[in-house]
Amino acid sequence: MSDPAVASASSPLLEAIRGRRVERWFSDERLAEADVMAIAEAAARAPSGSGFRPNIFVAVTERDQIRNLFAMSPGMFSHPAAMLAICIDWTVLPYLRPDDPSTTHPTWFDIGAAFENALLVADEAGIGACPVTSFHRAGAGAILGLPETTVPYVLVTLGHSAQPQEYRMPKRLRRGRIHRDRYQEASDG
Amino acid sequence: MDDRQRTERAFIEIAAYLASAASLSAGEPPSYGNLRLLEGVQRVLDALIDLDIADGELRTLASGLGEEVTGSSGDVERSQALADRLVAALVARLEAGPAG
């Protein structure tokens, strides 16, 4: 039987995970500096494969910087109040080749863990967030002043929602994704 | 920043967006998609020239762009390189701020 534990378990963190949504439409309201830096810290404290911690984070709140990054980013739908750039400093991992996925795959897990931490802490603070990967990396890197060996891979957009709460899409956990002990094919019945 | 500079900045932001989208979509279907986006960059720069807002640097960037865009049709590497070069030039322009 699939998904046996979904309905009964509960904890503040699990409730936060259940309630979190990606936010793509932001109001003009500014964010508190402390909230932005807490989100950055949460991302920087994410687990890292073999403890290498190759991620570099740039928290962006300057309006002109946000406008310039927005101009590079087809994946952003509205100007956020802040952004967190999640980058990899490839000099930390000299034996990896950025163009070879067979050697670099742990770094993608690091990035995923970092932005999930950021999304959860943002959600707890009542701040909307969205991880964006559709942007011009070299252009964003130039705007952020990054050295060529440090590449931005995700821009987490942050801001207060411009949408009424009722517009938020319900998040459903599709049945058949969690299994106990052994994978079981779904039955038609 | 005066009205002319604000207009220039808004146009450059749109051009940068189109060039970024062209770079990201190079090699993706439909095959003419990034070509159309590069044509969009050219149209934005042409509009800045028509409005008599473009300075010498932007006119140089726009000069011959139409032929480069047409010449890169069907050549993923060439159109990607053109898009990346445009992004770099437009980023430099955004960072420098509008000409006075």
List keywords for this structure.
heterodimer; A: 189 residues; alpha+beta; NADH Oxidase; 32% helix; globular; B: 100 residues; mainly alpha; 5 helices; 76% helix; 0% strand; elongated
What does this structure look like?
Chain A is α+β, with helices and mostly antiparallel strands and 189 residues long. Chain A has one domain (21-164): NADH Oxidase (3-Layer(aba) Sandwich). Chain A contains 5 helices and 4 strands. The mean pLDDT of chain A is 90. Chain B has 100 residues and is mainly alpha-helical. Chain B has helices at 3-25, 33-50, 56-62, 65-71, 76-96. In chain B, 76% of the residues lie in helices and 0% in strands. The longest helix of chain B is centred in the first third of the chain and has 23 residues, at 3-25. Chains A and B meet through helix 3 and helix 5 of A and helix 1 and helix 5 of B.
Order of helices and strands of chain B: HHHHH
CATH superfamily of chain A: NADH Oxidase
Largest interface: A-B, 14 and 18 residues
Query: What proportion of the residues of chain A is helical, as a percent range?
Result: 25-40%
